[in-house]
Amino acid sequence: MDIDWKKTNRVLVVRLRSIGDTVLATPSLVALRRFLPEAQIDILLEDWVAPVLQGFDAVDNIITVSRTAKKTRFATALKLRRNKYDAAFNLHGGTTATFFVRATGARVRIGYDNYQYSFLYTHRAPDSKQFWHQEQVHSAEQQLALLGSVGVPVLDKPKSLLAVTDSARSSIEKKLFEKSKFQIPNSKFALLHPAAAFDSKQWATEKFARVAEFLFEKNFTPVAVAAPNERAILENLKQTARVPILAFDDLSLPEITALASRAELFVGNDSGIAHIAAAVKTPAVVIFGSSNIHHWHPWTDVPNEIVYYKSDFDKQENIKLITVENVIKAVKKVLSNEDLVDETKLKS
Prior knowledge:
Elements (H helix, E strand, L loop, with lengths): L9 E5 L4 H5 L2 H10 L4 E7 L14 E5 L7 H10 L4 E4 L4 H9 L4 E5 L10 E3 L2 H5 L6 H10 L17 H14 L8 E6 L11 H13 L2 E6 L5 H10 L5 E3 L4 H10 L2 E5 L2 H8 L4 E4 L5 H4 L7 E6 L14 H13 L7 E3 L2
Parallel strand pairs: 1-2, 1-4, 2-3, 4-5, 5-6, 7-8, 7-10, 8-9, 10-11, 11-12, 12-13
Helix pairs in contact: 2-6, 7-10, 8-9
């Protein structure tokens, strides 16, 4: 069935799960907005992550669903049905996302042919590797390929993008002022994110402390962020470092976005926060452990370095083998903007 895009007035994009997943969906949203400038484009996100897209003008409406209260899913499905979408994209691939796409009743439902229950889609795309004619595919490319498979122009591969709201910018400036007791040691600062979702992705806090000391010597104020349940990591960082560190564990996602946009440099673990930094064009050094660097590296065109230890023996232990010197070398590369490469590859 051919798609008459000229008669497509309402489009839903389903992108469930994490912060990083949501940020890496923004290139697809940008491409879709360029292609359908007059259409209503909505996105379905999990409620806890939805604020990351505040102020993002490529979408008209952000619809949320709880990831914990399953009983609300039917109410959400009914809402989607009432919106009478002409087309729905599943950028996620999970069965819950498939349920929501089918519930829309959209005449055009687009997903990959390897999705479970793929028969519920009217248009099924082959593997994204075929679309790009390459063996390694980034998460952003994977999502863009789904759009490209039905005629949306994506070959320029837009980069990740987030908006900084005026309210978040004002709020973070106030908090920085208060946290520093009216004296930020240096006018420029580096944003550190020493936390991660898994131990295999979390570089040692003590090593982050050494990097913070190096940055301080280079006239950066180290500013660290983490979630409320990761407060102990921030406390350990402050106690271990021999320089002052401003630490926040109570920021909203829009405030973190504003903070990242103000930073001169980001240094942190592979995480959603790293993708936020990339989406606001902040130069970055991202430390990888067990994740696939080809699939999850920062999707940006600003200077960035990836630090990882390549070993196929025990990927869970790889991050422990990355040294402070490895990360500082990457920081120097980004700051000097000389001989920049996409990856800092450490040999085992």
